């Protein structure tokens, strides 16, 4: 699947592939996977909305993020519908280290702050796309098809955020993007203590 031209830019812009062990653990943690995925869709919508509130002086940004926020909320509704069909209760779970560690990389200075947020959002969308593709062939057929259909949206969101980062960047993105990707790679590969949609593979004692 990594050779699929449709998603070539996703694989080209990630520092690593998700370990096979994470996918193996996903099949045994379907309720948590779906709950955290629903949370991720809400957070993605929230990120787009918060940027709209903070950067009201960016006319290019506003309509793009408005459309993206609506789409993320539709995805949340779709995930929630799957959960209801599977009789999975929506409950509070702790967030993963993934978003917290990436967020810590955001600069406090503008315009670097905006660019960092956009770059991190792009990488998160790319990782989500890669995992949707991987999950599509490993989960029960109906859920697998659901994830396969979501992958194209995530790839488009990745391109959207990356293009916005390029629009507002001063001095280019290469070095900053490389630094963020290296941290993201570490978070994906290192053993984690809790299974989540964006976690690393569980430590062996917890698997």
Protein architecture, described:
The chain has a single domain (20-206), classed as Ferritin, core subunit, four-helix bundle (Ferritin, Up-down Bundle), CATH 1.20.1260.10. 67% of the residues lie in helices and 0% in strands. The chain is built from 8 helices and no strands. The longest helix is centred in the C-terminal third of the chain and has 28 residues, at 141-168. It is globular.
Could you outline the blueprint of secondary structure elements for this entry?
Blueprint: H1 8-12, H2 20-27, H3 30-54, H4 61-85, H5 97-103, H6 112-136, H7 141-168, H8 174-189
Helix pairs in contact: 3-4, 4-7, 5-8, 6-7, 6-8
Summarize the structure.
With 207 residues, this protein is mostly helical.
Q: Encode the helix/strand succession as letters.
A: HHHHHHHH
* Computed CA radius of gyration, to the nearest angstrom: 17 Å
Sheet/helix structural class: mainly alpha
Q: Beta fraction of the residues?
A: under 5%
Distance separating the two termini: 26 Å
CATH class category name: Mainly Alpha
CATH superfamily (homologous) name: Ferritin, core subunit, four-helix bundle
């Amino acid at each position: 699947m990594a050779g699929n031209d449709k998603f070539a830019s996703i694989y080209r812009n990630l520092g690593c592939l998700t370990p096979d062990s994470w996918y193996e653990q996903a099949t045994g943690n379907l309720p948590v996977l779906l709950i955290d995925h629903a949370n991720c869709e809400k957070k993605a919508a929230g990120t787009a909305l918060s940027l709209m509130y903070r950067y009201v002086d960016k006319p290019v940004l506003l309509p793009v993020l408005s459309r993206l926020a609506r789409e993320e909320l539709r995805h949340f509704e779709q995930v929630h519908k799957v959960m209801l069909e599977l009789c999975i209760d929506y409950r509070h779970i702790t967030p993963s280290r993934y978003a917290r560690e990436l967020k810590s990389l955001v600069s406090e200075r503008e315009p670097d702050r905006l660019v960092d947020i956009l770059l991190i959002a792009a990488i998160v969308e790319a990782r989500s796309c890669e995992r949707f593709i991987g999950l599509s062939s490993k989960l029960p057929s109906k859920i697998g098809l659901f994830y396969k259909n979501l992958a194209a949206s995530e790839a488009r969101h990745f391109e959207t955020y990356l293009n916005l980062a390029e629009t507002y960047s001063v001095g280019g993105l290469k070095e900053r993007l490389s630094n963020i990707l290296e941290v993201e790679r570490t978070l994906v590969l290192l053993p984690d203590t809790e299974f989540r949609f964006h976690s690393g593979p569980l430590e062996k004692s917890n698997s």
